[in-house]
Amino acid sequence: MEFNKMESLLEKYFEGETSIAEENELKDYFSSSNVAPHLEQYRPLFGYFTEAKEQKFTNNLPLVSKKRKVAWLSIAASIIVMLSIGTYSYFEVNTVDENRELGTYDDPEEALEATQKALAMLSDNVNVGVEGVQYLQVYEITKDKVFVE
Fold first, then answer.
1. What's the CA gap between 53 and 31, in Å, rounded?
2. Cβ(13)–Cβ(39) under 8 Å?
3. Do residues 47 and 32 make contact, with C-beta atoms less than 8 angstroms apart?
4. How far apart are the C-alpha atoms of 125 and 144, rounded to whole Å?
5. How confident is the model at residue 24 (pLDDT cuts 50, 70, 90)?
6. Considering the chain, what percentage of its residues have pLDDT values greater than 70?
7. Which of 30, 36, 61, 68 could cross-link with 46 by S-S, CB 3.0 to 4.6 Å?
8. Counting beta carbons within 10 angstroms of the beta carbon of residue 30, is it exposed (0 to 12), middle (13 to 18) or buried (19 or more)?
9. pTM above the 0.70 mark?
């Protein structure tokens, strides 16, 4: 009778449905000497809990002061702030200089030459796109010849 009760408690334990009182009953049963032979395999599982209670931690843990961590964090944060300010000012100065040089030509011939160069580059890129569209038109015509509806 007691074996059947322990088997049902074990089943409930492995399904996670036992109460604390039932778990204590299982621990007491498996720590006793009259355990059923077919339940001996579970003895180490429940014996572990009694052994773990007896263990004591004897090592000393070194305590790290929080002041040292705060000091290092503040130094690191100030370095990051200084680097970000320096980086921002460096790139801001360069963009201001670049903006002053955009689109200003004193010599009209030089301006004409730069405009012709820009238009030639634009024309080359547009012609590449037009060639691609022409290939699509050839494809459409060929497709219509092959797949007659």
1. 13
2. no
3. no
4. 29
5. confident
6. 81
7. 30
8. buried
9. no
Decide: 31 and 50 in contact? Cβ < 8 Å.
yes
Give CA angle at 41 (39, 43), nearest 5°. 85
DSSP 42: G
pLDDT digits (tens, 9 = 90+) for 35-81: 888 878 878 777 776 677 777 777 777 776 666 677 788 889 999 99
Select from 41, 54, 7 the least CA-distant residue to 26.
7
DSSP state of 130: H
Q: Per DSSP, which regions of 2-141 are E strands? A: none
Block residue for tokens 């204590």 = 24
Looking up tokens 């929080």 gives 66
For residue 19, report the phi and psi dihedrals to the nearest 5 degrees.
Answer: -90, 175
CA distances from 54 to 29, 50, 83, 100, 115 (A): 18, 7, 55, 80, 89
Is the per-residue pLDDT at 103 higher than 80? no
Q: What number of other Cβ atoms are within 10 A of residue 29's Cβ? A: 21
The residues near 46 (Cβ < 8 Å, ≥ 6 apart) are 26, 27, 29, 30, 31
